[in-house]
Amino acid sequence: MLIKIVGLHAPNAPRLRALLGPEHEVQALDAFPVAGPIAADVVITNSIAAGEAARLQCRLLHVPGAGWEQIACDALPAGTLVCNVHGHEVPIAEFTLHAVLEHCLALWQYPARLDAEAWAGAYAARSQHGEAHGRTIAILGFGHIGQEIARRARAFGMHVVAVTRSGRPAPAELAQESIAVAALDEVLPRVQVLAVCCPLDDSTRGLIGARQFALMPPDALLVNVARAVVGDEEALYEAGAQGRLGRAVLDVWYQYPKKGQAPVPPSRWPLHELPNVRGTPHISAITPALLDRRYGFMARNIERLQRGEPPENLIYRAP
Fold first, then answer.
1. CB 4 within 8 A of CB 37
2. 105 lies in the same domain as 80
3. Which of 30, 64, 168, 191 would give a disulfide with 138, using CB separation of 3.0 to 4.6 Å?
């Protein structure tokens, strides 16, 4: 079988090649060709525009992650299968709980180096810090990531509110409360942590805006590990700049660098200048174990396709 890995994930072609063996040909492409058919048994990419999708000639389009909003599904030729892959929930959950603990403990207020010069002053100026235990965390999106966050939050004695479209009760061992997204505003005044890990679609774009930030306690923590635009960009900046939001930890952004284009800041607003914003460059999921899990899954799906079996994590079939 011919497999093409295109774009951001192309450097992982050797990893997939080693998993599949010599009977499969794995090609790495920096970008899709500008013209002509794009032919392969399997194409792996996290982004394909409508014009590229229309030229696709493959049986399976595999997204090497969970998010597939950058796949122009409507333009795919009839019969094309689209699958995604998870495996990122463990490191993202650990990242989120680290953000919670960092917020509660506020270790940044102490000297980076506790030597003889800093010791006396630091000891005399010791202040109380908070605890995660007993705090309420609302988890917006309760899929793979949300549930892993909940497991760790419960272990720290936090009160977990699962926020989903339906509001159906989450397993009791994961959440003490379950609410629909439509009721989010009702719980925000008593939420100390809002973890955003929902998919991006028309219903979630801009879901957390000025009203939601105004409802949250002034010392609340926002952690966004989903897509940046779930939070309104300007409203987030204003809430942070005006002290109406205690702290924000952002691992996802509004603008991303693109090869061959001029550098851009991660946000059109100077979020990076705010002392209560901690920004990381979309790294919450990136671990060696994540790549092992994801490429192992994709290799097994390719083998299933070769055997004529339906692939797992099928999210779309072009009509």
1. no
2. no
3. 191
Domain count, the chain: 2
Q: Under DSSP, is residue 68 helix (H, G, I), strand (E, B) or coil?
A: coil
pLDDT over 90 (residue 45): yes
- Please say if the pLDDT value at position 307 is more than 90: yes
Expressed as residue numbers, the domain containing 294 is 2-87+288-317
User: In angstroms, rounded to a whole number, what is the distance separating the alpha carbons of residues 63 and 24?
Assistant: 19
82 and 100 fall within a common domain: no
Burial environment of residue 319 by CB neighbours within 10 A (0 to 12, 13 to 18, 19 or more): exposed
What DSSP string runs through 72-86?
Answer: -GGGSPTT-EEE---
* 108 and 135, same domain (yes or no): yes
Q: Do 160 and 144 belong together in one domain?
A: yes
Q: For residue 260, name the pLDDT band (cuts at 50, 70, 90).
A: confident
pTM for this model (two decimals): 0.86
Is 152 in the same domain as 260? yes
Verify that 228 and 198 share a domain, yes or no.
yes
Amino acid at 201: D
Look up residue 307 and give its amino acid: R
Q: Tell me how far apart the alpha carbons of residues 131 and 158 are, in angstroms, rounded to a whole number.
A: 10
In the structure encoding, which two tokens stand for residue 21, read together? 């063996």
Amino acid identity, residue 152?
A: R
Q: Would you state the structure tokens that stand for residue 136, as one six-digit string?
A: 């309420």
Domain CATH for 98: 3.40.50.720
Q: 227 and 107 share a domain? A: yes
Structure tokens that stand for 108 in this block:
């940044």
> What tokens does 251 get?
């691992």
Contact, 106 vs 152, CB < 8 A? Answer: no
Distance CA 94, CA 109 (A): 22
Apex 112 CA angle, 106 and 113, nearest 5: 140
CB 101 within 8 A of CB 155: no
List the alpha helices (DSSP H) in 13-166: 13-20, 50-54, 89-105, 116-124, 144-155
